[in-house]
Amino acid sequence: MPDRAPQQVDRQLPTDEARDLISLVRDIAQREITPSAAEEEDAGRFPREVFTLLSDAGLLGLPYDAEFGGGEQPYEVYLQVLEELAAARLTVGLGVSVHTLASYALATYGTKEQQTEHLPAMLGGGLLGAYCLSEPASGSDAASLRTKAVRDGDDWVITGTKAWITHGGIADFCTVMARTGEDGPRGITAFLVPGDAEGLSAAVPEKKMGLKGSPTAQVHLDGVRVPDARRIGEEGQGFAIALSALESGRLGIAACAIGVAQAALDEAVSYAAERRQFGKPIADFQGLRFMLADMATQIEAGRALYLTAARLRDAGRPFAKQAAMAKLHCTDTAMRVTTDAVQILGGYGYTADFPAERYMREAKVLQIVEGTNQIQRMVIARHLAGPEER
Question: N or C: which end of the chain has fewer CB within 10 A?
Fold first, then answer.
């Protein structure tokens, strides 16, 4: 295989601390993630020890308050950390993004007492979270979820099934959206459910096209009892909390997509410089050079788009439209770039001896998770033209 080292991304970072953080992440990726990524993905092995290492290094709570164990980093820095991790192995980058998403409800809408009690362990205590919104019959139409939470004294009893849950079966805590009132979005409430709660179980993980090291499973709640002290926000506020979380989560997916695309470009450039045909490196052929140029341009545009959205978020300005645009563009870019990388490698790109085929399989799911790209187009259009007539 080619041994030419890829060029590091030249990042625009706001502080020396952020530059040191990126250096730390690159060192961890090079030593602990990349060397075993292909083998472990092929075996379907989840690298829990890597997440323990990331937690110990303070990388599982980067955008949250230092008061509760977070890194208090701006989103523009956190997302570039995600990109570096996803370039090394998407299972890790996506896992950090999902954990951040699962922590969002409590970190943003929880009471000070709840945050003091739970957040330090969630952000820096080695725990791993799952975000439980989708169900077998409610994916894009999340407001139609049927999981119910019924009040019983000072407790809530939750019953239902969640679907497509990243970290399903291995998470230490789950942020669960359940129906506590009327049909529709106003009847949904958020709960923090311990991963070892009685009545909580997971199905056998899904057999997926890619991202095989990251467990995705249905999560069953069979009369799970949680105290009202684990209700997050007000009754009926859960759907608003869920949508708010997803606005930020979409930026995480966008950053992961650019990480995968960058890894695929690096692989294609390295291969093209080494592979010789007709007496010269194939990188000297204009048709291929133009492909590489287009791939690099799409990646840079995607990175600029997600960072623009992140900076709006950091400034406290509305960013939902830009987040949807970033998720749409970056994940479509990842699909195009990884497909082109396979093409550049030719027959070798279709084999598991090179990582290009894995990148291509992994890129596909990013167009689906946390709001399909068709949903992103709907979100963007609503910002431009207003809601659809009913």
Answer: C
